[in-house]
Amino acid sequence: MDEHIVEGYYFEDIREANKAKKEYFNICKLKGTISFDDLQGLKNLYLKLVSKKYFSTPIGYSFLQEMREYLVENTGDDGLPLISVERNNVIKVPQVLNEKHPEISSEKYKKLRVEYNRLKRTKTILQIAVIAFGIIIAGMFYIMATNKNVGYFNTEEKILNKYATWEERLESWEDELNLKEDELELREQELNKR
Fold it and tell me: What whole-number distance in Å separates Cα of residue 155 and Cα of residue 153?
């Protein structure tokens, strides 16, 4: 028997299935000790179980619902508190799989269940991969926006600016050299005149 199935319920999480087994065991013990003739005691037990949220699986919820229906039927008190239900990963499995879907055999159901779990894992892995790629792409955009020396962007302009400054320096040096040359020529002419 599959460890995930407890009393006609399929639990995706083995821990939930184990919790349901414990609840079923406790329910069996309770049924052996409680007296259904003592309606006030049964009502007090129901109120205590509901208020302390003693049960948290469909097994326990169905037991509480049976108790509630029995109390309402025998006491006429419809003011009993409702059962607070938590979200669980549970699938109700028919007692006989072919009961609702005669075309699905128990072997086919098990294969579908395995395939479903495989696809669920694949979906999770793909979601993680998409999130990782999204973070990487966002990081690339962040680097591109904050870094002034981004790769090849504006490289041609940077090179042209660099050469333009070199050209300006060379021209200023050439102008200085021309001035000095002119000065030297004037001196030489003055010296030659003497």
Answer: 5
Domain ranges of the chain: 5-93
Integer Rg of the chain from CA: 43
List % helix, strand, coil for the chain (3-state, nearest 5): 70, 5, 25
Residue type, 148: K
What does the angle CA 158 – CA 162 – CA 165 come to, to the nearest 5 degrees?
Answer: 140
Q: Which two tokens stand for residue 99?
A: 């009961």
- Helix or strand run (H / E) with residue 111: helix 106-146
Tell how many helices (H) and how many strands (E) occur in the chain.
Answer: 5, 3
pLDDT digits (tens, 9 = 90+) for 67-109: 888 888 888 777 777 787 776 544 555 544 445 555 556 677 7
